[in-house]
């Protein structure tokens, strides 16, 4: 074989290696033919509120009883007691509570007892046991970015008995995940949703509201809009403006059911001196989360598309630290194939303003203070 032929073979081999590297770097598509997808009905835990395999978001200001609500929901799930307004609880099951704010011994368990829970069906995920070569065994707090696989282990061990996982509040379990980074939150919640879907349990994620009221209710939810985008349903806990002792649980969004209104409750005290939820007898249809938390009308909020929500999340992420040149933002929006109409709608929803600043007084987009 001549030297030229050797060089040609070496060049071909290098080309093949580089092509393989490029293929490995870009990945390969994983496709699932539509005909092979097994169709199944949407499965409810609490019809219209909690769904098996789907996350539901519960938000509200501190002091309104969100954790008390989660105790009531966990109790009803474990005992099989009917849901509010007499909805049948078809299949009682086990509950996993991830709580970072209340002590199980003096707060959560007494509340569960007051709500009629079956304590044999409820567990607390208090920590994760890790092993380190330097320090040996240690207990660390649950971080969903590192330990979401632990939830899969628990669900698998329970062999279908797990029906509900409560994460209260979600900000305490994010680990190194930036709650304002849309991509990071989507990735984390997506992994959690896949496990919930595989093992058929519901996920109730608790979060807070931001301050201010000059925006739609959906944008008052703390952190990235990926939280509300990933949730299939979202409910807000608010104080009834007409009755200071009454609380309202009002839908912010629901992708899987018709909007049939919200719920009301007051707080009672049980024989063990623990507070419990006293649900109202009728659905709340005269008041909306939008009318209490934000501006505009409920129908206007419902009309906000998932695409606009995605653009809002992107805008918040791009502008959260400093204003950005308008020309640059339009160019980046075009690269992402966002339509001009949707971008303008998202700017309006977030209250983004244009200000003249910098070199040659160029226009910049700014988030409201």
Explain the overall architecture.
This protein is of the alpha/beta class and 369 residues long. It has two domains: 44-294, P-loop containing nucleotide triphosphate hydrolases (Rossmann fold, 3-Layer(aba) Sandwich), CATH 3.40.50; 306-366. It has eleven helices and 16 strands. The longest helix is centred in the N-terminal third of the chain and has 24 residues, at 3-26. The termini are far apart.
Question: For the largest beta sheet, what order do the strands appear in spatially?
Answer: 5-4-8-9-3-10-11-12-13
Please identify the structural class as seen in this structure. alpha/beta
The CATH topology label of the largest domain is Rossmann fold
What is the C-alpha radius of gyration, as a whole number of Å?
A: 25 Å
- Could you report the average pLDDT, rounded to the nearest whole number? 84
Q: What's the CATH H-level superfamily name of the largest domain?
A: P-loop containing nucleotide triphosphate hydrolases
Helicity range = 25-40%
Shape descriptor = globular
Query: Helix-strand pattern, N to C?
Result: HEEEHEHEEEHEHEHEEEEHHHEHHEE
Structural domain count = 2
Q: What is the number of strand segments?
A: 16
């Amino acid at each position: 074989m001549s030297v030229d032929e050797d060089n040609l073979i070496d060049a071909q081999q290098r080309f093949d290696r580089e092509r393989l590297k490029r293929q490995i770097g870009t990945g390969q598509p994983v496709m699932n033919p539509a005909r092979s997808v097994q169709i199944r009905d949407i499965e409810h835990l609490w019809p219209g509120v909690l769904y098996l395999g789907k996350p539901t978001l519960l938000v509200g200001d501190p002091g309104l009883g969100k954790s008390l609500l989660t105790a009531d929901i966990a109790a009803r799930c474990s005992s099989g007691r009917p849901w509010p307004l007499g909805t049948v609880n078809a299949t009682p099951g086990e509950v996993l509570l991830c709580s970072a704010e209340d002590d199980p011994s003096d707060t959560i368990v007494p509340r569960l007892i007051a709500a009629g829970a079956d304590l044999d069906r409820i567990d607390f995920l208090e920590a994760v046991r890790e092993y380190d070569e330097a320090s040996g065994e240690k207990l660390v707090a649950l971080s969903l970015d590192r330990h979401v696989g632990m939830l899969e282990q628990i669900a698998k061990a329970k062999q279908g008995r797990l029906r509900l996982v409560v994460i209260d509040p979600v900000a305490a379990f994010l680990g190194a995940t930036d709650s304002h980074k849309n991509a990071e939150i989507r990735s984390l919640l997506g992994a959690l949703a896949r496990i919930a879907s595989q093992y058929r349990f519901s996920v109730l994620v608790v979060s807070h509201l931001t301050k201010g009221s000059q925006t739609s209710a959906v944008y008052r939810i703390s952190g990235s809009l990926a939280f509300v985008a990933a949730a299939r349903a979202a409910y807000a806990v608010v104080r009834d403006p007409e009755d200071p002792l009454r609380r309202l649980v009002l839908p912010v969004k629901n992708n899987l059911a018709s909007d049939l209104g919200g719920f009301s409750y007051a707080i009672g005290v049980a024989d063990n001196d623990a507070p419990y939820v006293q649900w109202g007898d009728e659905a709340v249809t005269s008041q909306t989360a939008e009318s209490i938390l934000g501006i505009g009308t409920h129908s206007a909020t419902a009309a906000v598309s998932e695409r606009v929500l995605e653009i809002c999340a992107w805008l918040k992420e791009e502008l959260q630290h400093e204003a950005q040149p308008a020309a640059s933002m339009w160019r980046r929006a075009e690269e992402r194939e966002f339509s001009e109409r949707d971008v303008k709608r998202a700017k309006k929803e977030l209250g983004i303003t244009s200000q003249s600043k910098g070199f040659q007084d160029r226009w910049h987009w700014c988030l409201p203070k």
